[in-house]
Amino acid sequence: MTKTSSPLVQVDIVSDFVCPWCWLGIAYFDQATAQSKFKTTLTWRPYMLDPDVPAGGVPYPAYMTAKFGEKRDNRFASMREHLEAAAPDAGIEFHFSDIPMRPNTLDAHRLMRWAQGQDKGDATAKGLFRTFFKDLKDIGDAKVLTEIATEVGLDAALVSDLLAGENDKDTTRGEIDYFRQLGVSGVPTFIYNGQFAVTGAQPVDTHLQALEKAANMPASA
């Protein structure tokens, strides 16, 4: 499909890379943009569902038990079943029962920040989701993050050095706080032209309608 030359729809996605709804949500968004006649630019914004997870992460089964209790309620089981059923049509995979670690995602968001500066944000984001949910690796581990950086064409040695330091930790935390103060309390949140939001893993038609609406509104300054 040939995209119209204008207007350009600007979309910010506020997300966390351990959020399954975020992976499903971006898959639906991508399907919508592939069908839409409008051009879009996508910017990834950081969010941490649980900033209290220690830097080294915690075993996933223990984390989930502490969060939801020994006996998971029917709502939790239904959520997992829905995600696992919806994933194949979206071109993604979930293996919840086999996830070994619940990482702290601050370093993953730092990597995304650097990747976006090199126009490699989308590839990096999808690499992070895939590595965590499908490949079952710890995306809080610097070695794993460096492997993702290598896959998308970033300078692995530089990324490794940056991850070992404090670069952009405070800036990333500040951006997370900004979106919390803005009222973002759940992810994914897609912000269209800085003017309205679509929250959750909404179906393709919802994003097509949002793109149409945004294309007919002036972009924010």
Report on the architecture of this protein.
The protein has helices spanning 20-35, 60-68, 74-90, 106-117, 121-134, 142-151, 156-163, 169-182, 204-215, and strands spanning 8-15, 39-46, 58-59, 101-102, 189-192, 196-199. It is an alpha+beta fold and 221 residues long. It has a four-stranded mixed β-sheet. A two-stranded antiparallel ribbon has the order 3-4. Helix 1 packs parallel to helix 3 and helix 6 packs antiparallel against helix 7. The longest helix is centred in the middle third of the chain and has 17 residues, at 74-90. The relative contact order is 0.20.
Order of helices and strands: EHEEHHEHHHHHEEH
Uncertain segments = none
Principal-axis shape? globular
| Count of alpha and pi helical runs | 9
What Rg do the Cα atoms give? 17 Å
Largest sheet: 4 strands, mixed
Average predicted confidence as pLDDT: 93
- From the N-terminal CA to the C-terminal CA, the straight-line distance is 29 Å
Helix content: 40-55%
How would you classify the quaternary structure? single chain
Number of strands: 6
Helix-and-strand structural type: alpha+beta
Give the strand order, joined by hyphens, for the main sheet.
2-1-5-6
Strand percentage, roughly? 5-15%
List keywords for this structure.
221 residues; 9 helices; alpha+beta; 4-stranded mixed β-sheet; globular; 13% strand; 51% helix
Topology:
Layout: E1 8-15, H1 20-35, E2 39-46, E3 58-59, H2 60-68, H3 74-90, E4 101-102, H4 106-117, H5 121-134, H6 142-151, H7 156-163, H8 169-182, E5 189-192, E6 196-199, H9 204-215
Parallel strand pairs: 1-2
Antiparallel strand pairs: 1-5, 3-4, 5-6
Helix pairs in contact: 1-3, 1-9, 4-5, 5-6, 6-7
